[in-house]
Amino acid sequence: YTQMLFFLYLVVVFTLLFSIFFFFFFQAEDGIRDAQESRGLGDVYKRQLYDKVPEMQRCAAMVSHVLEQPDGIVVMCGSGTSGRLAFLAAREMNRWMELVSGEAQQFQGVSGRFHYLISGGDPALLLSDEQPEDDVEAAVAQLLALSAGKRSVLLIAISCGLSAPYAGGMLDFCMDVFEGVTEHTGNHPEYSAIGIGFNPVELAREAVIDMWTGRGIDKSRSFKQVALRLQRLERQEPGRFCLLNPVIGPEPVTASSRMKGGSATAILLNTIFAHALGTLHTPPEQDHIRSILQRFEQTYRETYDSGSVAIGLPRIVDQATDCLQAGGHLYYLGDGTAGIIGMIDASEMPDTYGCPFDEVRAFVEGGWERLGNAHGDLSDHSRLCRISLQQFEDEVGTGAGDLVVVLATNELSQHVVDAAKRCRQAGAALAAIRCWSGPSGSQSNAGAASWSELAAFVGQELVVDVRLSHTELLPTVGSLAELSLKMLCNNLTTSVMVLKGLVYHNRMISTGPTNEKIYDRCVHMIHLFTGCGLKPAEDALLRSIYKVDELPDEVHQATRSEHIRQATPDEQTKKQQCRILPLAILLATTNFTVESGLE
User: Fold this and answer.
1) pTM
2) Rg (CA), the chain
3) Which end of the chain has a smaller Cβ tally under 10 Å, C or N?
4) In which band, very low, low, confident or very high, does the pLDDT at 445 lie, cut at 50, 70 and 90?
5) 31 close to 203: Cβ distance less than 8 angstroms
6) Please, which residues have CB within 8 angstroms of residue 232's CB and are 6 or more apart in sequence?
7) Residue 40, exposed/middle/buried by CB under 10 A (0-12, 13-18, 19+)?
8) How far apart are CA 243 and CA 231, in angstroms?
9) DSSP letter string over 543-588?
10) pLDDT for 4-37, tens place per residue?
């Protein structure tokens, strides 16, 4: 009887976990939605990734054309998860070109032909920093610096909801150069541009970008106008401009694009690059792009069909939830790309769920040197940027209230295994997740012996081991295994945050207005949950930001940018759970003061 109850419990929990990802890319319904009623589902038409194969073929041809130029470069840009995935894609593609084509001179993210730009710079690879997303001038300056001396530049600007000013500003600049109307003087390279997002253009963000409020009516002033302009130029010059925006359905957590939007971004980038690089010197096989998408779809299904996931992942979720609710931590440890996947997942917790910055962290064997980022070792930037295993053991450490999750693909070093064992000896709970490929019953990959040792040490209850039919799209580039691992990490942390009570009515309830887009989102959520007007909702938000029951004149007179700066966490508040939005909702009911609401 007890065993039957436990089995039913596992079934129920896994059903909850699986439902988070069930409406995935290959069963698309509608567009990414936000809290704003005007940008809801509406009658958005259905489109799927497979419908975009012709556009992906054109994008791959654009990549090939740039790489055929002696100094042509591909520049990917984005904010938050989009920028981190741009970094990962640049790293993996440069790695392939170094090993196969000899194009990269050294193993660094910007040393080869593929480059990345992320709002907030390299620290934002680890630390949530939303405010720089609004800075279109800095975005263009960064693109200009990276393009200096080049003759051909392909920009791939990623904004899942077609909303981020950082990506929109670079797209608009490239189109200005093409049409000869740029305000930036000097010799410019030949720019081509691809915009990637997952909304139809009619649901792109219409709000005027703060830095563009003074622009004339002949200039773009919102991301929607940028997207419409890109569509127009795509019709005129399909070999130089493209808007790639398959609608993949609503996110499991409203407006949080880290899950489906992030995974779809990885699928699109890797599909385009695998086709472009794999056919650079050889003719493509028939339906090559479609076959790549089918591999990704197979990977998705094999991940969630795995009995190991069905049994092990709910147990890891329960263990992680217990640890975090008791004031402990969740730490990822991993080699190379597996560690980076953990790093990306952990970095999304503060901006998505308002978590303390040190509650969920990731550490990578070899630290920044292994990452190969543009600006090198950032260990001195912040204590939160100390990410090597050695720094983890020397400076962070673990205790009885923590959970350490080891992440692995086909690689797992003995250093990671030994560090994990020491964590257990210090009292921490231990779990392990691996996504790998090999023949049935085979353990032929390089990290097999280390994994077997780790799994035996952890015990099967907290082990997830997913064997995939394929893990590589290109030699040494294991994009498929990384997608599988990303989905499991996303599922783990999302489920934990739901169980912690940080999601309400499918919305991220414990966040703060750290940029223009999120400021508007907070105001509309306050309006939605309390029924008050938009003006009282914004007043409640300001009272929560400044922690006052009556708003003084200086707050009313301050700009929105000043409010956003006030709401952005400093070094002290980064250690605390964000309460700005929950408090504002209570204040808007008129039943609470700041003091009673915080209690």
Assistant:
1) 0.89
2) 23
3) N
4) low
5) yes
6) none
7) middle
8) 6
9) HHHHT-SS--HHHHHS-HHHHHHHHS--TTGGGS---HHHHHHHHH
10) 544 454 444 454 454 444 433 433 333 344 433 3
